[in-house]
């Protein structure tokens, strides 16, 4: 048995329980992981509230690292005792996107069925009812069985909490800058929204040697934190978006070359597009509700050669990128540890959700001894 955060249907505290669930032995191509650190991500809120429908009962969570506890038959890449970070997207390997070398765009990933690749479920309630595992990893538990392909070995000495964040927010934010947008040295950058994802965009912009990195949030305290991970300027978002746009233009001689939206709100998506200078690029990283629509003026986009890019998972190729981001952290070039402001126990997860919804804190990480 293992303790796991389980939701039976979307809703409030009454729908979330921390229950004992049975976790089986790993089958062929699977491992059992004992989690050491699990980050909370805003997408977990979308599942709690039903904004993104998830078949239930399910174990939540998409950002974790832990130690390999057992390996099933045919597991060759991993060994017991190794620290691994989990990827929430295991590409199918055969679709058009995978064949073209874009695993982050795979529409047929077995992860999206919230089961093992062979269709099996690996968790069950005390009554034997199957429990789905979000993206096949369902990280908010003390232990889980996951596909070997989802577990990426991390270099020795990496803090498990840092490894957990590499599994989602760091790869998403850093990758949006260095892989999706390929920001060149000397460019000016603005990042709107300074949660784990936005602060990772800031770190990515510093890594790319952007000349000006303007960090924008509605919470003043976030601006100083952004400076500590590489921002050159902080800008408190105004309730009047015209004022925010005017300030961005003033600070960058007409608008930042690259603007990253890392919240998932229609008004800030529109702000990002509107504030672009000639030839500028808006990169949309925040996830909106499915039905959200934004609008923009077409003529200046075309006439001014402006661009809008979407970035899923920071174009991550986890086996290549996770160890690379860990090495950059070790070398002092990605201060990932500064994104973590609370290390909590599994029993504190409900209050951690409240804090996540308020937008006030940084990354909260559930840690296990
Ligand atoms: N593209 C991807 O693959 C991917 C992967 C993971 C997460 N995401 C998405 O990235 C987004 C950010 O995730 P997170 O975990 O960092 O969220 P978070 O809640 O930790 O951070 C959001 C930040 O935005 C700020 N904010 C909110 N409204 C604002 C406004 N009107 N103006 C300025 N700032 C405002 C908040 O104060 C907070 O600092 C979410 O939409 C999440 O779903 C995308």
Number-wise, the strands total 18
Mean pLDDT: 94
SSE run = EEEHEEEHEEEEHEHEHEHEHEHEHEHE
Instruction: Give the assembly state of these chains.
Output: single chain
Portion in beta strands: 15-25%
Largest sheet: 7 strands, mixed
Helix/sheet category: alpha/beta
Whole-angstrom Rg: 20 Å
The number of helices is: 10
Q: What is bound: which ligands?
A: nicotinamide-adenine-dinucleotide
- Which residues sit in consecutive blocks of at least 5 with pLDDT less than 50? none
Termini distance? 17 Å
From the spread of the alpha carbons, the general shape counts as globular
Roughly how much helix do the residues carry, as a percent range? Answer: 25-40%
List the keywords.
369 residues; alpha/beta; 10 helices; 18 strands; binds nicotinamide-adenine-dinucleotide
Task: Report a brief summary of the structure.
The chain contains 10 helices and 18 strands.
Explain this structure.
The protein has 369 residues and is of the alpha/beta class. 28% of the residues lie in helices and 24% in strands. The protein contains 10 helices and 18 strands. The protein has helices at residues 42-49, 96-99, 160-180, 196-207, 221-228, 241-251, 266-274, 298-303, 318-330, 349-358, and strands at 2-7, 16-23, 30-39, 58-59, 64-71, 83-86, 123-124, 130-133, 143-147, 151-153, 188-192, 212-217, 233-236, 258-261, 281-284, 307-310, 340-344, 363-367. Strands 3, 5, 6, 9, 10, 17 and 18 form a 7-stranded mixed β-sheet that branches. The protein has a 6-stranded parallel β-sheet with strand order 13-12-11-14-15-16, sandwiched between helices. Strand 17, helix 10 (349-358) and strand 18 (363-367) form a beta-alpha-beta unit. Helix 3 packs across helix 4 and helix 6 packs parallel to helix 7. The longest helix is centred in the middle third of the chain and has 21 residues, at 160-180. It is globular and about 60 Å long. The chain starts with a strand and ends with a strand. The mean pLDDT is 94. It binds nicotinamide-adenine-dinucleotide. Nicotinamide-adenine-dinucleotide (NAD) binds next to helix 1, helix 3, helix 4 and strand 12.
